[in-house]
Design brief:
With about 220 residues, this protein is α/β, with parallel strands linked by helices. It is built from 7 helices and 7 strands. The radius of gyration is 25 Å and the shape is globular.
Length: about 220
């Protein structure tokens, strides 16, 4: 309120002060805004214990499972991949040629039990190999579809909550994770996520069991 006899504050100065305050708030909001994920993981990943990470993801009501193994509890490419995977809250699409890594298999089953909608597409020949996680996923009630025909279902990608893409050369096997030179790209990019999601949906429908051909003996 202006008091008679007191100097008036110039309108321009008031406007400048308001603009400066607005700019400061905008810059603060920008700093706090979460940046899209852009991460590259390289393998092989050294053997490490992921029990604490998986136990935490199981929820506060889950029984504690102390791990007596001598492996170090260190941050590595496998633990980072697990964290990205376990960040799913609504949906997870997996399109994998080979899937035998127990830690990744356990993470997927945990997500399913938490209510995340999980769908898996895999290769018919490799899903039956010893150590494959596919049977365990199916036993838990996770939807799995596979190819029926010539050639391999050779994709290796995952889509988390329809917003984050995980893709690269890595087969989700213990051998590939601990031995092979591999790469995984983790990215939040709507354009690329849509392309991979469209491909997943196309394959998912193509591998619908109602479309399978039944061969009758003698034909």
């Amino acid at each position: 309120m202006w008091v008679p006899g007191a100097p008036r504050r110039p309108v321009f100065a008031v406007a400048m002060a308001a603009a400066a305050a607005g700019l400061a708030l905008a810059m603060a909001a920008r700093r706090w805004r979460r940046r899209p994920v852009r991460e590259v993981l390289f393998f092989p990943s050294p053997p490490s214990c992921t029990e604490a990470l998986l136990a935490e993801a199981a929820g506060p009501g889950a029984p504690a499972r102390p791990c007596p193994c001598p492996l170090p509890r260190t941050d590595c490419s496998l633990s980072r991949l697990l964290r990205r995977l376990l960040s799913a809250r609504r949906s997870l699409e997996l399109c994998l040629f080979a899937f035998s890594c127990p830690q990744l298999g356990r993470a997927v089953r945990l997500l399913h039990r938490r209510g995340v909608r999980v769908r898996v597409v895999t290769d018919a020949q490799y899903m039956g190999l010893r150590g494959s996680q596919i049977g365990l996923l199916r036993h838990d009630g996770i939807q799995v579809r596979h190819d029926q025909g010539h050639g391999y279902m050779h994709h290796k990608f995952a889509i988390v909550d329809r917003r984050m893409l995980i893709t690269g050369s890595l087969n989700w096997t213990t051998q590939a994770i601990q031995t092979n030179r591999e790469n995984v790209l983790v990215v939040e990019d709507a354009e690329y996520v849509k392309l991979y999601l469209d491909e997943f949906e196309r394959i998912w429908e193509q591998y619908n069991p109602t479309n399978y051909r039944v061969l009758v003996q003698g034909q």
